[in-house]
């Protein structure tokens, strides 16, 4: 299936696995649960960021930190939800958020292992089962921004600065 593009709608039935962040201890985690993105994101402005993997060098050093640092700016531009997806399981995604100081649902760390969103609607990385590095913005269910990194080792069109500039 071709990746979503500007003007497309968020498909029905998009679900991820999620272990909500309820405390700061990265060695403890609750039970994973289903996160129904199609339902939860209805009527909202959402920034969805895909990374090749939690704790990987580029994602940890260059991709995630600017989203954490600029969360207030994103919210001031009307963003209701910032979500990061990777092919890692929900426990790893939960720990990644905690290690980076994210509390509660400030930023959602969602596992893309069950629905294969990147393969069906985004961009796979061409590195086996890993997600690609890309960003999409949904506003009231419609894609208003969708860009894929031509080199998954770089953070340009999927970075926080570029997304902020397009909001």
From TrEMBL:
Q: What is this protein called?
A: Thioredoxin peroxidase
Q: Which residues form the Thioredoxin domain?
A: 4-167
Q: Which organism is it from?
A: Epicoccum nigrum
List the GO terms this entry assigns under cellular component, sorted alphabetically. Answer: mitochondrion; peroxisome
* Domain of life, per lineage: Eukaryota
Keywords, A to Z, come to: Antioxidant, Oxidoreductase, Peroxidase, Redox-active center
Q: Name the job this protein performs.
A: Thiol-specific peroxidase that catalyzes the reduction of hydrogen peroxide and organic hydroperoxides to water and alcohols, respectively. Plays a role in cell protection against oxidative stress by detoxifying peroxides.
Q: Which family does it belong to?
A: Belongs to the peroxiredoxin family. Prx5 subfamily.
User: Matching CDD domains, A to Z?
Assistant: PRX5_like
Which GO terms label this protein's molecular function in UniProt?
A: thioredoxin peroxidase activity
Is Glycoprotein one of the keywords? no
Q: Name one Pfam family in it.
A: Redoxin
One of the protein's GO biological processes? cellular response to oxidative stress
Spell out the catalytic residues. Answer: 59 (cysteine sulfenic acid (-soh) intermediate)
């Amino acid at each position: 299936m071709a990746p979503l593009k500007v003007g497309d709608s968020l498909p029905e039935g998009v679900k991820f696995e999620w272990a909500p962040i309820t405390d700061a201890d990265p060695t403890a985690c609750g039970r994973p649960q289903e996160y129904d993105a199609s339902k939860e994101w209805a009527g909202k402005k959402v920034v969805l960021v895909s990374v090749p993997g939690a704790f990987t060098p580029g994602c940890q050093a260059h991709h995630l930190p600017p989203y954490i640092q600029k969360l207030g700016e994103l919210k001031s531009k009307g963003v209701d939800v910032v979500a990061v997806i990777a092919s890692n399981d929900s426990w790893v995604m939960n720990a990644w958020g905690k290690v980076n100081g994210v509390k509660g649902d400030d930023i959602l760390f969602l596992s893309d292992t069950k629905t294969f969103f990147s393969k069906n609607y985004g961009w796979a990385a061409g590195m086996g089962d890993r997600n690609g590095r890309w960003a999409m913005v949904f506003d009231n269910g419609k894609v208003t921004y969708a860009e894929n990194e031509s080199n998954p080792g770089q953070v340009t069109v999927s970075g926080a600065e570029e997304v902020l500039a397009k909001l």
